[in-house]
Amino acid sequence: MNVPPRPPLPHGPYLLCDDSLRPELSLVEKAERLLAGGARVLQLRMKHTPPREALAAARAVVARCRQAGALCLLNDRVDLALLADAHGVHVGDEDLPPEAARELLGPGRLVGVTARGTQGALAALAAGADYVGVGPLFGTTTKQVQAPVLGLEAFKRVVAQSPLPVVGIGGVGLANIARVAATGAHGAAVVSDALLAQDIAERVRLLAEAFDRGARGASLETG
């Protein structure tokens, strides 16, 4: 049986559709607003949603993403990714091991892994991952992370040494996303800065523009 190739991870803002923010909006409504702003990749993170509701939300958000031509990855939940026909998963320090995620998902879906440095990126490659989320860059209030803040200089070294595309994670928003992009990062994960904005779609557009400015600056430096 021919397996379609895994889709490439888009450059730029990597938006999280999270159930811990903006409770007045459903996960589907959050996803629709993120996608309306031009989001090209969403990670659906449901730490507080009951299983049946999570499955329904996953199926609906994946459908919206596919209609918009965007990727949808499930945080941690390989089972939901398969049931909802998502493009893949992202697993963290305490989630299912990436080797197991790859075994269950097969070769046709993306596996992202949280890493804290270059050694973690090398281990993720060996485990079959497609990209790494590296951080925390600036610290974050959205998630409790038992790891020191990395900072941009150390992050830039990881980007240069990583064998996999690197997405910066932790405290990224409009005020600093251009600096993250200027390190040569493949992407930058944004949670609260987008979802807490009064106009989520407009915020996503501004984030993409800022990332592109930073990336152009990095390419001029290396060109």
Secondary-structure topology with pairs:
Layout: E1 12-18, H1 27-36, E2 41-45, H2 51-68, E3 71-75, H3 78-84, E4 88-91, H4 98-105, E5 110-115, H5 118-126, E6 131-134, H6 152-161, E7 166-168, H7 177-181, E8 187-190, H8 192-195, H9 200-222
Parallel strand pairs: 1-2, 1-8, 2-3, 3-4, 4-5, 5-6, 6-7, 7-8
Helix pairs in contact: 1-2, 1-9, 2-3
Helical content stands at 40-55%
Number of helices: 9
CATH superfamily: Aldolase class I
Helix-strand sequence = EHEHEHEHEHEHEHEHH
Category from helices, strands and their pairing: alpha/beta
In CATH, what is the class?
Alpha Beta
Q: Strand order of the main beta sheet, please?
A: 1-2-3-4-5-6-7-8
Q: Report the radius of gyration as a whole number of Å.
A: 16 Å
Major β-sheet annotation:
8 strands, parallel, barrel
- Give the number of DSSP strands: 8
- Strand fraction band? 15-25%
Give the count of structural domains: 1
- Identify low-pLDDT runs: none
- Tell me, what's the shape? globular
The CATH architecture designation is Alpha-Beta Barrel
Q: What distance lies between the first and last C-alpha atoms, to the nearest angstrom?
A: 42 Å
**What do we call the CATH topology?**
TIM Barrel
Mean pLDDT: 94
Explained architecture:
The structure is a single chain. It is globular and about 45 Å long. It has 223 residues and is of the alpha/beta class. Helix 7 links the parallel strand 7 (166-168) and strand 8 (187-190). The model has no long low-confidence stretch (mean pLDDT 94). It is 42% helix and 17% strand. The protein has helices at residues 27-36, 51-68, 78-84, 98-105, 118-126, 152-161, 177-181, 192-195, 200-222; strands at residues 12-18, 41-45, 71-75, 88-91, 110-115, 131-134, 166-168, 187-190. It has one domain (12-222): TIM Barrel, CATH 3.20.20. It has an eight-stranded parallel β-barrel, surrounded by seven helices.
